[in-house]
């Protein structure tokens, strides 16, 4: 009898391992894709998503590494008698599976949205009490990514709610990237690593460089506000589990300098790169920012270590991010409106990153410098930086070891 019980427990354990193993390596580097919410909100429909999918390919974003097309809130219709959710028949007359099949036919992956509460943020049916029906439906449709929001969740324990949906996804059997949108209220970075692949660290981003927007009871935040909220979180991020400072506003109306700086800082943060603009009407300037291969390479570096704010002097911030092969990314950020005279003496700065157990000592090692936005080599760290840095802009570099200097 004991042997039968032991065998049964082993089989159950192996079954659980199989479910969880399917979820391994889904997000070894920060996910890249597109989400409908920032630019469209609830104004979505089947044809528009198909057109966005086509534009993801023709614009070059797919070739640059963007792979998820994610429908946010407002796709929902009603539940059937068994509790299974269906799409809005007017907005998505062909159904979600047909749309997912179309996205997959373009070599892309499909993402969808739900909420841990009784209703979504826009008042559509939430997943509370229907987690297993929803997970089965998503698997049937061919969903590859689930964004799971936190509206209408009064008196719910977030760890329990997100674990329930994780277990439902496991049980459904299809590998689905689990994006937890709890807004950072319950400090998910301290407990979510074994539940989701990424978790929001803040409330929603807002289309501005330096502001906060009052919605009457809650705020959304500008780029700099969200950047500041990432302090102290880098130790929680890494391959398979990422801090998420929300989607990108690149291409939605900020200046080119601000878009470039926004994209650079999200790359330095090892943040998911989820575009939120109208890809059907994308400008070449926006394409050049979103598809810059060297900035993306910094974000997608397999070491997976989030950048460190090394120094702050008035409007100037200096960030270092350790990369594979003993390389570094360095980003000089001008938060202010006015240009600043940037002067940086490499040998007077020794960067000690205790978390990464890495040091950049420019007295003992000379590094080759490459400007990732111009795509040009810029000498070595033997020569100090002296340049003008425009307002709301960045100077972003990668450093590659060249010479170990003699003592």
Any idea what the shape is?
globular
Name of the top-level CATH class of the largest domain: Alpha Beta
The CATH architecture of the largest domain: Alpha-Beta Barrel
Strand order of the largest sheet: 11-8-7-6-5-2-1-12
Percentage of residues in helical conformation: 25-40%
Structural class per helix/strand content? alpha/beta
Poorly predicted ranges: 1-15
Fraction in beta strands: 25-35%
Could you tell me the radius of gyration in angstroms?
Answer: 23 Å
Distance between the termini: 71 Å
Mean pLDDT, rounded to whole units?
94
Number of strands: 22
The number of helices is 11
Q: The CATH topology of the largest domain is what?
A: TIM Barrel
CATH superfamily of the largest domain: Aldolase class I
- Give the biggest beta sheet: 8 strands, parallel
* Number of structural units classed as domains: 2
Walk me through the topology:
Layout: H1 2-21, E1 32-35, H2 37-40, H3 46-58, H4 61-64, E2 68-70, E3 76-79, E4 85-87, H5 96-105, E5 109-115, H6 131-141, E6 145-149, H7 158-172, E7 177-180, E8 198-200, E9 212-214, E10 219-221, H8 223-228, E11 242-244, H9 256-268, E12 273-275, H10 284-290, H11 293-299, E13 308-313, E14 316-322, E15 328-334, E16 340-344, E17 350-353, E18 358-361, E19 365-371, E20 376-380, E21 385-389, E22 393-404
Parallel strand pairs: 1-2, 1-12, 2-5, 5-6, 6-7, 7-8, 8-11
Antiparallel strand pairs: 3-4, 9-10, 13-14, 14-15, 15-22, 16-21, 17-18, 19-20, 19-22
Helix pairs in contact: 6-7, 9-10, 9-11
């Amino acid at each position: 009898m004991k042997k039968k019980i032991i065998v049964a427990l082993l089989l159950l354990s192996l079954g659980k391992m199989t479910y969880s193993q399917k979820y391994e390596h889904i997000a070894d580097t920060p996910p890249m894709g597109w989400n409908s919410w920032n630019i469209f909100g609830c104004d979505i429909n089947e044809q528009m998503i198909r057109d966005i999918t086509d534009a993801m390919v023709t614009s070059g974003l797919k070739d640059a590494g963007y792979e998820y097309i994610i429908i946010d809130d407002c796709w929902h219709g009603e539940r059937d008698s068994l509790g299974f959710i269906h799409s809005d028949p007017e907005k998505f007359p062909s159904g979600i599976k047909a749309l997912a099949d179309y996205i997959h036919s373009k070599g892309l992956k499909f993402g969808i949205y739900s909420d841990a509460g009784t209703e979504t943020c826009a008042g559509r049916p939430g997943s509370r009490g229907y987690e297993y029906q929803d997970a089965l439906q998503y698997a049937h449709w061919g969903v590859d990514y689930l964004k799971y929001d936190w509206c209408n969740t009064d008196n719910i324990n977030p760890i329990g709610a997100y674990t329930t949906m994780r277990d439902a996804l496991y049980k459904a059997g299809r590998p689905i990237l689990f994006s937890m949108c709890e807004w950072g209220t319950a400090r998910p970075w301290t407990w979510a690593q074994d539940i989701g692949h990424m978790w929001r660290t803040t409330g929603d981003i807002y289309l501005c460089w330096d502001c906060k927007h009052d919605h009457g009871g809650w705020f959304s935040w500008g780029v700099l506000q969200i950047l500041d909220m990432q302090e102290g979180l880098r130790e929680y991020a890494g391959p398979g589990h990422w801090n998420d400072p929300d989607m990108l506003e690149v291409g939605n109306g900020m200046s080119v300098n601000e878009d470039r700086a926004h994209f650079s800082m999200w790359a330095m943060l090892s943040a998911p790169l989820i575009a939120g603009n109208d890809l059907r009407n994308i400008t070449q300037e926006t394409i050049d920012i979103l598809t810059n291969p060297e900035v993306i390479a910094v974000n997608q570096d397999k070491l997976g270590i989030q950048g460190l704010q090394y120094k702050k002097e008035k409007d100037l911030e200096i960030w270092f991010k350790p990369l594979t092969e003993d390389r570094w990314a360095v980003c000089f950020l001008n938060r202010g409106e006015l240009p600043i005279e940037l002067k940086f003496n490499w040998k007077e700065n020794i960067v000690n990153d205790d978390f990464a157990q890495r040091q950049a000592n420019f007295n003992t090692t000379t590094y080759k410098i490459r400007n990732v936005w111009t795509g040009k080599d810029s000498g070595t760290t033997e020569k100090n930086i002296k340049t003008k840095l425009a307002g709301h802009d960045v100077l972003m570099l990668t450093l590659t070891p060249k010479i170990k200097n003699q003592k």
